[in-house]
Amino acid sequence: MKRYLIERSIPGVGQLNGQQLKEASATSNAALAKLSGKVQWVQSYVVDDKTFCEYLADDELSVQEHARLSGFPANKVSEVRKVIDPMTAAARWRLALGDQSVYRPRHGQANFEKTPWCAYFYYVGKAPAGSTVRPVAAYQYASHQGPIERSELRQLVTQLALNARAAPSSQNPKPSTAWFPWRRKSYIILLVDDPSFSFDQDNAVAITERVSGENYTFFDGVDFNDIALPNPAGGPAMEYVTAVCFINHMKRSAAGDDLGNGEEQRFTATFSPPLPSLFVLDAGGPGADGPKPLDEDHGTNMGPPIGPP
Fold first, then answer.
1. pLDDT tens digits, residue range 231-272?
2. Residues 6+ apart with CB under 8 A from 128
């Protein structure tokens, strides 16, 4: 889904009381329900005579249809192209992943693509009452519009989390039904949809190659501890959850060469606080054939890195 900012001219809206705002929200929600998931309301900012609303939608036509159904004007609709914040200038590098000098000498050379076009996304939910096992669903996402820039990561993580929260019939992409190796140069994203959980500030995840102990594949780690998602219990408040993201560059060694055809790298991931044995995959399971998820000490990368979709 795309992200839109909608400017609505509503004289006197800034003077509405709590009950009136509640009724206006209910009207908007009723219109959303008629659109069967094509539009999602994130939040709105109310000023004297206008509101500025953030929505996720399939397209602008869906946004305009919501305006028609709700009776709230959409005077100006703008698609969000990039999202920046203070973290853009000062990212918190909390992941012990690898040495960026592996790929820097090759950056700019012909046929060398630094920025991934796809992402492997792990959605980790809350443990059910009385259990320590967190459910997790794994998704493979591919961009068909170009490389996924670092500045787009927050928006992508939010989009994938909302997709994972949606009803199974409306999810796109769908969760994987089996374990999968990482075959593409890609972002690896793990989101824990639990506001009470946060990774340790100085060492969210460390990844080492299982044979030599050195790692030349995973670089560019960044974490978000403030991914804003609607409160599933309802109400206007947003929840803020944690995600870690890094790039799998699929490098064979310190020379910077990519993994070759059929070559495989196996690695071990360590999270802080520890995640081993805390979750199982919804589809498949620890007994399934093939590579295991990050916490299972059997991570796998398999070359060569496949080109853009």
1. 877 766 788 899 988 888 888 877 777 888 888 888 877 777
2. 135
- 5: DSSP letter: E
Same-domain check for residues 176 and 147: yes
- Record the pTM: 0.66
The residues near 224 (Cβ < 8 Å, ≥ 6 apart) are 87, 153, 154, 157, 242, 243, 244, 245
Alpha-carbon span 254 to 183, nearest angstrom: 20
Q: At which of 27, 60, 79 does a domain end?
A: 79
Same domain membership, residue 64 and residue 111: no
Query: Cis peptide before 116, with omega less than 30 degrees from 0?
Result: no
Hey, CA dihedral for 177, 181, 214, 216, is it positive or negative? negative
Point out the domain boundary residue: 53, 79, 105. Answer: 79
Range of the domain at 294: 86-306
**275, 125 Cβ separation under 8 angstroms:** no
Q: Determine phi and psi for 92, rounding to 5 degrees.
A: -90, 105
Those residues with Cβ within 8 angstroms of residue 69's Cβ, 6 or more apart along the chain or in another chain: 30, 31, 34, 35
Same domain, yes or no: 161 and 15 = no
Whether residues 31 and 111 fall in one domain: no
* Alpha-carbon gap, residue 137 to 123, rounded angstroms: 5
Q: What is the DSSP string of 285-308?
A: -TTSSS---GGGT-EEEEEEEE--
**Total of domains in the chain:** 2
Shared domain check, 157 and 21: no
